[in-house]
UniProtKB/TrEMBL annotation:
PANTHER family: ISOCHORISMATASE-LIKE DOMAIN-CONTAINING PROTEIN, PEROXYUREIDOACRYLATE/UREIDOACRYLATE AMIDOHYDROLASE-RELATED
Domain Isochorismatase-like: 11-205
Protein keywords: Hydrolase
Similarity field: Belongs to the isochorismatase family.
Domain of life: Bacteria
InterPro entries: Isochorismatase-like_dom, Isochorismatase-like_hydrls, Isochorismatase-like_sf
Protein name per the record: Isochorismatase
GO molecular function annotations of the record: hydrolase activity
Keyword Hydrolase: yes
One family name in Pfam for this protein: Isochorismatase
Species per Swiss-Prot/TrEMBL record: Brevibacillus reuszeri
Native organism taxonomy: Bacteria, Bacillati, Bacillota, Bacilli, Bacillales
Length: 212
C-alpha cells in the first residue's frame, strides 16, 4: 500500500471530458449520469482551489472534417455530426466547473498540444484519444510540478477515465478514482481498478483528507 496510497498534498485533480456536448441534458453526445455528478465535482474543485492545488481539465475536440477523430466516431463526424467541435459552445467546459478566471477555449492552442491556463493553478488540455497520456505532454507537465498522485473525476468511466487511469498506473503515478464524481461507473470496473492499485473512494473521503 505504501507505493499506491495517495499523497494528497502532491496531488492533481483531473476532470475528464465534462464538456457541454457530453454533459448537458439532450446534448448531441450526452453521457447519462454526467450531469448528475456535477455537484460532487464542483465540491472537489472548490476544495482543490481552496488549497491552491493543481487542477487539469482534459477535453476532446473533434474537427468537423473528422481528421483527428477516433475511427469509431469518424464516419459520424464526416457525415455532419457536430460534437465538441472547435470554436463551439458545445466544446466548452460546463459552466459549473469553470473558475472565476475562465476564458473560452483557445482551440488552436489546445490542438497544438499546449496547456491553456483557465485559473490559478488550473489548466485545460486536449487529448486526441481515450487516454489523457496518449500523444500529450501530460506526464512531463506533472513531473515538472512534483505531482505524484492523480485524482480522477468526470465523464464516462468505461472509456476515457478508465483508459487514463490505466495509463497513469503504467507510469507509476498514484491513482485515485472518486467513484461518486464520475459517470457510468459499474461494480466490475471498480474491482478492476482495485486490482491495479487504484485508490477508489467517494467525495467525502477526499474532502476529509482536504480538511486534515
Amino acid at each position: 500500500m505504501s507505493y499506491t496510497s495517495p499523497n494528497w498534498n502532491t496531488s492533481v485533480l483531473i476532470t475528464i471530458d465534462t464538456q457541454n456536448d457530453f454533459t448537458l441534458p439532450s446534448a448531441p453526445a450526452e453521457i447519462m449520469g454526467t450531469h448528475q455528478v456535477l455537484p460532487n465535482m464542483v465540491r472537489l474543485l472548490d476544495a482543490y482551489r481552496a488549497k491552491g492545488l493543481p487542477i487539469i481539465h482534459v477535453i476532446r475536440l473533434y474537427k468537423e472534417d473528422g481528421s483527428n477523430v477516433d475511427i469509431c466516431r469518424r464516419e459520424a463526424i464526416e457525415k455532419g455530426a457536430k460534437i465538441a467541435a472547435p470554436h463551439t459552445e458545445g466544446a466548452e467546459l460546463v459552466r459549473e466547473l469553470r473558475s472565476s478566471h475562465y476564458t473560452s477555449l483557445d482551440t488552436d492552442k489546445l490542438l497544438s498540444g499546449e496547456f491553456q491556463t483557465v485559473g490559478e493553478h488550473e489548466w485545460v488540455m486536449y487529448k486526441p484519444r481515450w487516454g489523457a497520456f496518449y500523444q500529450t505532454e501530460l506526464e512531463a507537465f506533472l513531473r515538472e510540478r512534483g505531482v505524484d498522485t492523480l485524482v480522477f473525476t468526470g465523464c464516462n468511466f468505461p472509456n476515457c477515465p478508465r483508459t487514463s487511469m490505466y495509463e497513469a498506473s503504467e507510469r507509476d503515478f498514484r491513482v485515485v478514482m472518486v467513484a461518486d464524481s464520475m459517470s457510468q461507473v459499474y461494480e466490475k470496473g471498480i474491482q478492476e481498478m482495485n486490482n491495479i492499485g487504484v485508490h477508489v473512494c467517494d467525495l467525502e473521503d477526499v474532502l476529509h483528507q482536504k480538511r486534515t
